[in-house]
Amino acid sequence: MSARDWGQLLLLGGLWGGSFFFARIAVAEIPPLALVLYRVSIAALVLHLWLRMRGISFAPVLARPSSFLCLALLNNVIPFSLIFTGQTKIGAGLASVLYATTPLWTILVANLLTADEKLSTAKLTGVGLGIAGAAVMIGPGLLSDLGGPTWAKLAVIGAAISYALAVVYAKRFRDIKPSVVAAGQLTAATVLMVPIVFLLYGADEIVTSTPSTWMAVGILGVFTTAVAFILYFNLIASAGATNASLVTLLVPASAIMLGSVFLGERLEPYEFAGLALILSSLLVVDGRLFRR
């Protein structure tokens, strides 16, 4: 990957690192599927405003509606619903580690479905180091989370598999600007979620009066979804599916680092060890250091 790709990967990891924290706040008062609708609809609105301001056409999405509906299912509706539902029963730490298995599933899916991203020892070794690093970074807190129900853990793993399928599927949109792909995907996700939410919930179930909850919903929609998916699709186009999926290894690390920077939390030795493993995993997957 280029230096620009690495910069985008790190920024994306930072944005998605905060998503588990804000989702945990919001899902305490808003049902999981309603939270999915809020997240994707706010992000879609922001991206449509962005496209209009930049004078970028939305026409490529209208020409391929079925493809964008499929992308929305794999990359938004299914994984968001599974993660938010899982987080009603398990902690953010365990959820982020299970989510960090995404690159492993991506390597396997890409090996089966693509011609240019085949399985390699370096990729498997790197991803294994990354998952181990994510687990080490969570440390003792991970052990306290392990008692959650099996279905909740499987829900987050299912989300990781869905993301793996989505990142490979998204390669077919390389001819469209990343901002347009992101807007099309999130618009399609909104269309899919509106009837589901209104069939399942009453108005009193999906509205809360707590300002902190709405602030968490807004941050989820604008920063960890709208901005993040522009970066994500740009990475897929320039660095490939497997490299883009490496961002999930950074999510636990960035969540802990954000807590250290903004909440004054003290980093423990095991957290530094986990971060070292994650950085090592990225170097192994990248491969340039070993080639030299």
Word description of this protein:
There is one protein chain. It is built from 16 helices and no strands. The protein has 292 residues and is mainly α. The chain has one domain. The two termini are 15 Å apart.
| Mean pLDDT score | 83
- Characterize the biggest β-sheet: none
Coarse shape? globular
> Helix segment count?
16
Task: Sum this structure up briefly.
The protein is an all-alpha fold. 81% of the residues lie in helices and 0% in strands. It has helices spanning 3-26, 32-54, 59-62, 65-86, 92-99, 102-113, 121-138, 140-145, 150-169, 178-200, 203-206, 211-239, 241-245, 247-263, 269-286, 288-291.
Give the helices and strands, then pairings.
Layout: H1 3-26, H2 32-54, H3 59-62, H4 65-86, H5 92-99, H6 102-113, H7 121-138, H8 140-145, H9 150-169, H10 178-200, H11 203-206, H12 211-239, H13 241-245, H14 247-263, H15 269-286, H16 288-291
